[in-house]
Automatic annotation (TrEMBL):
Name this protein carries in UniProt: O-antigen ligase-related domain-containing protein
Lineage: Bacteria, Candidatus Shapironibacteriota
Coiled-coil ranges per UniProt: none
Protein origin, superkingdom: Bacteria
Transmembrane segments annotated in the record for this chain: 12-30, 42-61, 73-91, 97-120, 132-153, 180-197, 209-225, 231-249, 256-274, 367-394, 406-424, 430-452, 473-494
């Protein structure tokens, strides 16, 4: 009996890893507030729970700790320690534990999950399980085939009617964003190349064609993402992969054919399809077939509104992230708190970007994100982990000693996985990690360790007792409540988000009563999430307004009271979330018809608090100007609008209202200057500004 239970536990661990590798990149729903990352992270939590439970069962049965101390043990432990310390001293404990809502990846819970999966893999799988490793890689390549095939179909418009984004120009398939898809493809693209190389060496023509076509599908999809960081990562690691392969393998003539075929094929695809990097696209077919037209220079006014390049955006956000890291150098502001703390050091030049009012919950650079949110300790331990793994791999590859299990094919897989893992370091420099990529960041080292470790004891020789002792029986029984409670918690978390998403849709449709019911369901299933309270407060404000219009004074007063209480609870639970203050102001504004002066004063107080958190945010100072105006404080209103346009010169509505304020104070020259600037540099077609200047 114990042996059967132990074998079943081992099978559960292996099957769960297959599912993890295959399902994570594919998993999404259309009924959640965030379709992609949220679902992928919860899937990883669920499978990690099952894997951990089966691992514990094996430990109970064998009456010993089943744990493989790998070379990465101390680097990983140091990294985990830095994340725990940054969480303890975080400005928002809830966010640091669970991660920023809708993302989740990067929170302490996700880091612990990745480490559990890493050690579960290395402790329960060894070289005696080559079929398991092969099946894991097959699961990854099968997922890559499905994801990339769908991505290619996306390019030709299979689902463009469902997305706001121009998905035909930049595909994202089931990953949710083009750069995320590109980063994930980069991690895996060398696996079919190795399969192609290996099958050619064995004269397996049919299999070699399959692997060749798979590599073509992956590369084509990578081109269709339009991701410069993803393309750059491959450009850098592709020569590295072949260089190491040629150095380590003696039969170099055998390598020449697959090298030429893949390189020429990729080059031709790059020639026929537009590559993401402009300097390369100059040699693209679409560019070569365009005829030059004569340049005609026309004098035009410098109009501010334009789409900022990703480089310009990153420079500004990186500047703010570095300033934040310097301000809190030891442990940062807390794991995954960038969305809140970035506003403290947000550069004023951010206001001149086209995405000036976007919420940035990441630094768009994984390393700077760690620096800003976990300080020198977090970034230092992360870099130490990376450097240690690189040098350890170089050491192993230098030894190049094939064994019974570490065959020449294993060496090729090792090179492919290591090359793919290196691409993460590049794509993370220009972006940030997501669930599917972070899983590979931690599990590729686990796979490499498993196929290269010669000293690992074989699991096949594991001895189980003939009968279970009382302690073992009790231990096994206790595992079930743990797994059931954890899976129930995960399902409740998912269900809460499902109801929250429904509530948000009803709210947008002005179906406030239906939205109220869904908000209540969400808060009941996940009472710890302040976002639910924050948005539900606004819903209650609109219900109060409706009750007032229907002359139901008692209901109106009750809804208004509940609305303020919920909004204040949300702010109490997360006093650093700028959007909560904005939403609170919106909630109070919805209640203002009940008592305008009272609620305007409360809005003013909320906006003053927000302005302290985000001193360079012009939207807050603009709204302060509006509220002061409504409170008949003309001088303060004018001052706030003057501060607003000083921070953001192209703020059209702010300049228009400032001109109106000047006219009301009979400062006509100042009013004229504002209107002329608006028409010359911001919007020449602003009709109201023209009327104020008497321009036909």
């Amino acid at each position: 009996m114990p042996k059967k239970i132990g074998s079943l536990a081992q099978k559960i661990i292996e099957s769960s890893f297959y599912l993890l590798f295959f399902l994570t990149p594919l998993f999404l729903t259309t009924v959640n507030y965030e379709l992609f990352e949220f679902n992928k992270m919860l899937l990883a939590y669920g499978l990690a729970t099952i894997i951990l439970s089966a691992w514990i069962v094996k430990i109970i049965l064998q009456k010993k700790i089943i744990f493989q101390k790998t070379p990465l043990f101390w680097p990983l432990l140091l990294f985990l320690g830095s994340q725990i310390a940054a969480t303890i001293y975080s400005i928002d404990l809830h966010t640091s534990i669970f991660g920023y809502y809708t993302r989740l990846n990067g929170g302490l819970l996700s880091i612990i999950t990745y480490l559990i999966l890493y050690f579960a893999f290395t402790s329960n799988i060894n070289q005696a399980h080559p079929k398991f490793i092969h099946r894991c890689l097959t699961a990854l390549t099968a997922a890559a085939f499905l994801v990339c095939s769908y991505g290619i179909l996306e390019h030709f418009g299979i689902d463009d009617q469902y997305w706001v984004q121009d998905v035909k120009t930049r595909v994202f398939s089931t990953l949710g964003q083009p750069n995320w898809l590109a980063a994930w493809i980069d991690c895996l693209i060398f696996l079919p190349i190795v399969g192609f190389l290996n099958s050619l060496a064995k004269n397996s023509k049919k299999i070699s064609i399959i692997y060749y076509l798979l590599s073509i599908i992956l590369y084509t999809c990578l081109l269709f993402t339009g991701s410069r960081s993803g393309f750059l990562a491959l450009i850098i690691t592709y020569p590295f992969f072949w260089l190491i392969t040629f150095i380590l393998l003696k039969n170099r003539k055998q390598l020449l054919k697959p090298f030429l075929i893949t390189t020429i094929s990729f080059s031709l695809l790059t020639f026929f399809f537009t590559p993401p990097i402009k300097s390369i696209s100059l040699f693209n077919l679409s560019q070569l077939t365009q005829f030059d037209s004569p340049n005609i220079n026309l004098e035009k006014p410098a109009i501010y509104p334009k789409i900022s390049t990703s480089e310009d955006i990153r420079k500004v956000v990186w500047k703010g992230a570095i300033a934040l890291g310097k301000k809190y150098p030891i442990l940062g502001t807390g794991v995954e708190t960038f969305a809140y703390s970035y506003y403290w050091t947000r550069p004023q030049e951010h206001n001149l970007l086209s995405e000036w009012d976007f919420l940035y919950n990441k630094a768009h650079n994984e390393y700077l994100n760690y620096f800003a949110t976990t300080g020198i300790l977090g970034l230092g331990s992360y870099l130490f982990l990376i450097v240690f793994f690189i040098f350890w791999n170089i050491k192993i590859l230098k030894s190049r000693l094939p064994s019974i299990h570490y065959t020449l094919y294993s060496i090729l897989i090792h090179i492919a996985l290591f090359s793919g893992w290196l691409t993460i370091l590049i794509t993370n420099f220009f972006g940030f990690s997501v669930v599917a990529v972070n899983l590979l960041f931690f599990l590729i080292p686990a796979i490499i360790y498993t196929i290269t470790n010669h000293k690992q004891p074989t699991i096949n020789n594991t001895k189980f007792p003939e009968k279970l002792s009382t302690r073992q029986t009790v231990g096994l029984i206790l595992v079930f409540p743990f797994i059931l409670y954890t899976l129930y918690f995960i399902l409740s978390y998912w269900s809460a988000d499902y109801h929250f998403n429904k509530a948000e849709k009803f709210q947008k449709q002005s179906q406030y009563s239906l939205a109220y019911q869904e908000y209540q369901q969400a808060m009941q299933k996940n009472p710890q999430e302040p976002l639910y309270k924050n948005n539900a407060a606004t819903n209650l404000a609109y219900l109060s307004l409706l009750a007032t219009q229907q002359e139901e004074a008692s209901s109106a007063a009750q809804f208004a009271l509940q609305s303020e209480e919920l909004a204040q609870k949300a702010l109490l639970e997360n006093p650093y979330h700028l959007d909560f203050y904005r939403q609170y102001a919106q909630t109070l504004y919805a209640l203002s018809p009940i008592d305008s002066h009272q609620y305007f004063e409360k809005i003013k107080t909320a906006l003053y608090a927000a302005q302290k958190l985000a001193p360079t945010d012009p939207k807050i100072t603009y709204n302060l100007g509006v509220i002061e105006y409504k409170l008949d404080n003309q001088e303060q209103a004018t001052n706030w609008l003057e501060k607003t346009i000083a921070m953001k010169p192209d703020y059209e509505i702010a300049r228009l209202w400032l001109a109106k304020f000047y006219q009301a104070k009979e400062q006509n020259q100042k009013a004229q200057e504002q209107l002329e600037y608006l028409l010359k540099y911001i919007n020449p077609d602003n009709q109201e500004a023209k009327e104020m200047l008497n321009i036909n």
